[in-house]
């Protein structure tokens, strides 16, 4: 018998696992509301460790997550996705802004205040190799939330853990095995079982499949999707690129250097992205229909590096890499505004929408050389530089045109 088995570990102040501490949200009700959220990591120097600057990892973001939906969050490495995930699960203390869960301000709740909420908000981590303690059995790992929250499930911890292992597609007999005995995909399933143990309302999954082989990625994404339908979960799923969140997200937020630059429902975002950065990310998404795999399309390659979040560019942060950047872009930060129902964007010269600064037409010199367009698909010629990247078709436009 392991320490997890029923009866071997005292579970004080027992509570039924089904007894939610907070009300169940009605479908569509705002579960999470984030306003002006910031996280600046201080940079300290010298003997006295004086603050000499800050990494502006998340720099003022606003969004809502409704019960039952999946919000996908995408953006390049270092744009602040994980920091955002850790802020909304309250694993990090924000520098400014607020986080509300079911209408309650949880921004500065302490450990004791957060304890009941820890049941409702769970996180799945990026790396299934480092997020599971190698010295603990699977039973101990998946059963840990019960002990930490002093919850006694009906039938005991062991039975409930074995049920959870079955739910995520693992053999309940593996209860006494150790993480090294499992593959990456299986380990991620263990991480998912642990996250689901206390029947959370919101699950934040930070790049849940990026460490896995492509062949396994779809299985894990499908598992998350099935569990959402079965258990009525709400997800925030973080990913590097749009192809991972494509099938599971209801809405998608695109982040760039600590800001959300576009937030839209999935259909609108894929059919007509408005922010040039979204358009560039979108051009890299493979066309899913195998009959159209050979269709020709173009990929926008952003040339410059992502600037440092210690001193982000003035005005629009994307202006150093944007082919549409004009003088106003370097001077004035664009307002994040809903230009179409359900589609908000922060851009002076959006794609597929009226120009927000029509008088400002002279391109910045950096804009002229900001991107290269590469033709992909059957018989594609060598990479070409085109003068008008706005002519690039997104995968869905290419598929529609070729139909
Ligand atoms: N604890 C920390 N102290 C200082 N800087 C940090 C800390 N955590 C993150 N950062 C910085 O904040 C920025 C955002 O990091 P974050 O991990 O949130 O990015 P990300 O979008 O998740 O990247 P990736 O896709 O590579 O996981 C980065 O520049 C990172 O170096
Ligand atoms: S057009 Fe201007 S505001 Fe819009 S993304 Fe490009 S640089 Fe930013
Ligand atoms: Mg990350």
TrEMBL record:
Gene3D superfamilies: P-loop containing nucleotide triphosphate hydrolases. Keywords: ATP-binding, Nucleotide-binding, Transport. One of its GO terms (biological process) is peptide transport. The keyword RNA-binding does not apply. Residues 1-22, 379-403 are annotated as: Disordered. The keyword ATP-binding applies. Residues 32-282 form the ABC transporter domain. InterPro entries: AAA+_ATPase, ABC_transp_ATP-bind, ABC_transporter-like_ATP-bd, ABC_transporter-like_CS, Oligopep_ABC_C, P-loop_NTPase. One of its GO terms (molecular function) is ATP hydrolysis activity. Belongs to the ABC transporter superfamily. PANTHER family: D,D-DIPEPTIDE TRANSPORT ATP-BINDING PROTEIN DDPF-RELATED, TRANSPORT ATP-BINDING PROTEIN. This is Peptide ABC transporter ATP-binding protein. It comes from Streptomyces uncialis.
């Amino acid at each position: 018998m392991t320490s997890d088995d029923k009866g071997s570990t005292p579970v004080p102040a027992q509570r039924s696992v089904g007894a939610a501490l907070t009300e169940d949200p009605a479908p569509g009700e705002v579960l999470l509301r984030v306003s002006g959220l910031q996280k600046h990591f201080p940079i300290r120097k010298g003997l006295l460790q004086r603050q000499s600057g800050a990494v502006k990892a998340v720099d003022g973001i606003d969004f809502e997550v409704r019960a039952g939906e999946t919000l996908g969050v995408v953006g390049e490495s270092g744009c602040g996705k994980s920091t955002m995930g850790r802020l909304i699960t309250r694993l990090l203390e924000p520098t400014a802004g607020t986080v509300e869960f079911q209408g309650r301000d949880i921004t500065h709740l302490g450990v004791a205040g957060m304890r009941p909420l820890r049941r409702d908000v769970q996180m799945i981590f990026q790396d299934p190799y480092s997020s599971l303690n190698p010295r603990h059995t699977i039973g101990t790992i998946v059963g840990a939330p019960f002990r930490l929250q002093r919850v006694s499930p009906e039938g005991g911890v062991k039975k409930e853990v074995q049920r959870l292992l079955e739910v995520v597609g693992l053999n309940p007999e593996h209860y006494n095995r150790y993480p090294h005995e499992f593959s990456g995909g299986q380990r991620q399933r263990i991480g998912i079982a642990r996250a689901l143990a206390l029947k959370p309302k919101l699950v934040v999954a930070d790049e849940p499949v990026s460490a896995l082989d492509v062949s396994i990625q779809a299985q894990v994404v499908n598992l998350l999707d099935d569990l959402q339908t079965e258990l009525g979960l709400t997800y925030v799923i973080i990913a590097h690129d749009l192809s991972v969140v494509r099938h599971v997200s209801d809405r998608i937020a695109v982040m760039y250097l600590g800001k959300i630059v576009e937030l839209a429902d999935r259909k609108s975002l894929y059919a007509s992205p408005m922010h040039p950065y979204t358009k560039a990310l979108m051009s890299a998404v493979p066309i899913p229909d195998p009959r159209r795999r050979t269709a020709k399309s173009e990929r926008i390659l952003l040339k410059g590096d992502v600037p440092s979040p210690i001193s982000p560019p003035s005005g629009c942060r994307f202006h150093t890499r944007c082919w549409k950047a004009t003088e106003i872009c370097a001077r004035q930060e664009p307002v994040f505004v809903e230009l179409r129902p359900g589609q908000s964007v922060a851009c002076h010269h959006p794609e597929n929408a009226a120009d927000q600064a029509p008088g400002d037409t002279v391109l910045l010199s950096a804009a002229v050389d900001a991107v290269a367009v590469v033709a992909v698909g059957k018989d594609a010629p060598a990479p070409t530089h085109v003068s008008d990247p706005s002519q690039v078709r997104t995968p869905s436009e290419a598929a529609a045109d070729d139909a």
